[in-house]
Amino acid sequence: MKLLLIEDELALSEALSSLLRAAGYAVDAVALLRHADAAIQVSRYDALLLDLYLPDGDGLSWLRRWRAAGHTEPVIILTARDQVSDRIAGLQGGADDYVVKPFDVQELQARLGAVLRRAQGAASSWLQVGALALDLQGHRVCVGTQQIELTAKEWAVLEKLATRPGQIVNKEALDQALYSFDDLVGSNTLEVYISRIRKKIGKERVQTIRGLGYRLVIEKTP
Fold it and tell me: N or C: which terminal CB in the chain sees fewer CB atoms within 10 Å?
């Protein structure tokens, strides 16, 4: 999953980006609304984390304009504004959730997982694809009763495939799930992660569609 963090407090932005990347998310961090606009033009995001006090404008006004333009990606507001009226204004302005600073990172991750599940239409944090089960909240993978250990990057690729089981996911979409703007990407990096995932969950479960991308195979039940 790829996130856009819009936060001008450098220490918070760097710390939060690092923690979210360690949890398996690809994160682009910007400090200005105009930079957020530019990022959205060139990359697709699964969710946005939005501060309201920004040097070049008010985040809530930006969010209202962004929603009016037809954008539907989940947005969590991160702000020091803690009045009930502020929360109501944020939710009515288009936010999917509202988190008051200072916040616990684990709570933020839980809220982020919840809004992402709602966006995908999933009632449970568990996603089942044949014998393969993914805990989207806890970032755990099981094949049958066996729990599989994945790195953060391996998780990012498998999660992207598992949320579209049986469908071709192109290389660009998988690369975007893996990397932020600041990452250096090798020409065969994605193929390396696909190979590692196959070794862990079974090579027959991830199919290469030559020239198009990859597909997580939906196993036939007996």
Answer: C
Q: SS3 string of the chain?
A: CEEEEECCCHHHHHHHHHHHHHCCCEEEEECCHHHHHHHHHHCCCCEEEEECEECCEEHHHHHHHHHHCCCCCCEEEEECCCCHHHHHHHHHCCCCEEEECCCCHHHHHHHHHHHHHHHHCCCCCEEEECCEEEECCCCEEEECCEEECCCHHHHHHHHHHHCCCCCCEEHHHHHHHHCCCCCCCCCCHHHHHHHHHHHHHCHHHEEEECCCEEEECCCCCC
State the pTM of this model: 0.70
**Across 106-126, average pLDDT:** 81
Question: Is 117 in contact with 125 (CB distance < 8 Å)?
Answer: yes
Neighbouring-strand partners of residue 140: 135
